[in-house]
Specification:
Elements (H helix, E strand, L loop, with lengths): L2 E5 L5 H7 L3 H6 L8 H9 L5 E8 L2 E10 L9 E8 L8 H15 L5 E7 L3 H9 L3 E12 L2 E11 L8
Helix pairs in contact: 1-3
C-alpha cells in the first residue's frame, strides 16, 4: 500500500464530508457531525491566508486530511502554527496519520521555518497522543471540561513540538 500526500483542492469536499461523517473521526476531532459537502467545498476553495491543507490518498482515494494553520498576520506568532487532522474511520491505524504528520513536520521545518507546532487532542484519544509523541510533541497542559463531545464535557491536552536545533555541518 502506498500513501501519497498532496495539497487539498475544492474537489475534495465530498471526501472531507465522508471523513468527518465517521463516528471515530468525529469523536476524535472538534468538528460537528453531519458536515455538508458545500461547507467543505467553500473552506477548500477559499482557504484562510496562511492555511496549508493536505490530503492522504491511497489508490487515488482521499482517506485522511491535515491542515496546518500559520500566523502570517500576527508578527509575534509567525514562528508557530496549529495542526488539525482526521483520518477516515476505515483507515485509522494503517499509517495514514503518520504520513500526514510527516508531511506537516517536513513543511514546517524545511520550508516555512516554523519552530513551534501546536495542537489540541482529547485526553482519552490514546492513538492520536501516541502518534503526536512519535513526532516529538509534548503535553504542555490540560484544559479541563474544555469541549463538549457526545453529550458530555471532555478534557483536552495542549501539545506542542519545538523544532530541534539543526546540527552545523563541518
Amino acid at each position: 500500500m502506498i500513501i501519497t500526500i498532496r495539497r487539498a483542492e475544492a474537489g475534495d469536499a465530498e471526501a472531507y464530508a465522508k471523513i468527518f461523517s465517521g463516528p471515530k473521526a468525529i469523536w476524535g476531532t472538534l468538528q460537528i457531525p453531519y458536515p455538508s459537502v458545500e461547507m467543505w467545498r467553500k473552506r477548500l476553495a477559499e482557504p484562510l491566508e496562511g492555511m496549508y491543507s493536505f490530503v492522504a490518498c491511497v489508490d487515488g482515494e482521499v482517506v485522511g486530511q491535515l491542515a496546518l494553520h500559520t500566523n502570517p498576520n500576527r508578527p509575534r506568532r509567525r514562528h508557530a502554527a496549529g495542526i488539525g487532522m482526521a483520518v477516515r474511520d476505515d483507515w485509522q491505524g494503517k499509517g495514514v496519520g503518520t504520513a500526514l504528520m510527516q508531511a506537516a513536520v517536513d513543511l514546517a521545518d524545511k520550508w516555512l521555518n516554523l519552530s513551534r507546532l501546536e495542537l489540541e487532542v482529547y485526553t482519552d484519544n490514546e492513538p492520536a497522543i501516541r502518534l503526536y509523541k512519535k513526532f516529538g510533541f509534548q503535553i504542555e497542559g490540560t484544559a479541563v471540561r474544555a469541549d463538549f463531545r457526545d453529550g458530555e464535557f471532555a478534557d483536552i491536552y495542549m501539545m506542542a513540538r519545538l523544532r530541534p536545533p539543526r546540527e552545523t555541518k563541518p
